[in-house]
Amino acid sequence: MQATIFHNPRCSTSPRVPGRLQESGSEFRVIEYLKTPPDRAMLTVPGEMSDVEVRGILRTEEAPASSLNLNAPEVSDEMLLDAMTGHPQLINRPIVVTDRRTLLCRPAERVEELLFFD
């Protein structure tokens, strides 16, 4: 399996995912998403290839989320995407992207779902 991991090395969960992929023999590249944010297209993976909705990858506890009022239920996916692309610290992590599926790996053990995905 080839994968891309959108990762933050300062996160307690994110650093465990590359280790598990390496153990499995998977090829992967790591992108520190705070330095190189994912684009809007990556954040809007088709539903059948992703386990979460746009709101599901929003880090609601980050300061910009409350100051931008992003936790309000009437905030659209488009507004959330604008906020996340402008403030990548709002993106939950780690997100692992393969050619067959995209998964938010919280907890880190969720990466196992990608390793055994049919």
From TrEMBL:
Coiled-coil segments on the chain, per record: none
Region (Disordered): 1-21
Compositionally biased residues, Polar residues: 1-15
PROSITE patterns assigned: ARSC (PS51353)
InterPro entries in UniProt: Arsenate_reductase, Arsenate_reductase-like, Thioredoxin-like_sf
Keyword list, A-Z: Arsenical resistance, Oxidoreductase
SUPFAM superfamilies on file: Thioredoxin-like (SSF52833)
The family this protein is said to belong to: Belongs to the ArsC family.
PANTHER family to which the protein is assigned, alphabetical: ARSENATE REDUCTASE, ARSENATE REDUCTASE-RELATED
Protein name: Arsenate reductase
